[in-house]
Amino acid sequence: MKRGDPPKRRTPLARGDKPLRPDPSRYRDGYSHNSTLRGTSPARRQVLAKYDKLRSEFLEANPICRRCQRARASDVHHMRGRVGDLMLDTRWWLPLCRACHAWVDVHPEAAIEGGFAALRNTVNPELPST
């Protein structure tokens, strides 16, 4: 290497070593068993199954984005969060397109003023008008 040349990267893969992560095809379920990710509990899987069903029914009943009124709603925005019973409480769900959902996440104050989000720490907030 000459003086002034950029240094070469010496990553493990550049030297021909093994990849940093194990090959998932070696495992029956596709995941490494020494992973730091925890599994999903049976109770959580049951809640997620109910959520998937409710979400698809909700988006069928509300096909248009509530913010822009033009695009097809593909996301469900949880106005007060997804903690506890709020995960399945459709009163606090809002059908949004992907772009509007990103806007609500990036601009929380404006979303609250526009009625697209609610404060999460209030005891009895008003229900959104539908």
What does this entry show, briefly?
The protein is mostly helical. The chain is 28% helix and 6% strand.
Spatial strand sequence of the major β-sheet = 1-2
Strand percent estimate? 5-15%
* Total strand segments: 2
Terminal Cα span: 68 Å
Mean pLDDT: 81
* Helix and strand pattern: HEEHH
Q: Please tell me how large the radius of gyration is.
A: 23 Å
Number of helices: 3
Could you name the ranges where pLDDT drops below 50 across 5 or more consecutive residues?
none
Structural class: mainly alpha
The gross shape turns out to be: extended
**Which oligomeric state applies?**
single chain
Tell me the helix content. 25-40%
> Could you describe the largest sheet, including whether it forms a barrel?
2 strands, antiparallel
Q: What distinguishing features does this structure have?
A:
about 5% strand, two-stranded antiparallel ribbon, extended, 3 helices, mainly alpha, about 130 residues, 2 strands
Give the helix/strand layout:
Layout: H1 42-61, E1 75-78, E2 93-96, H2 98-106, H3 108-114
Antiparallel strand pairs: 1-2
Structure write-up:
The protein contains 3 helices and 2 strands, in the order H-E-E-H-H. It is mainly alpha-helical and 130 residues long. The chain has a domain at 42-114. Strands 1-2 form a two-stranded antiparallel ribbon. The longest helix is centred in the middle third of the chain and has 20 residues, at 42-61. The protein is extended and about 70 Å long.
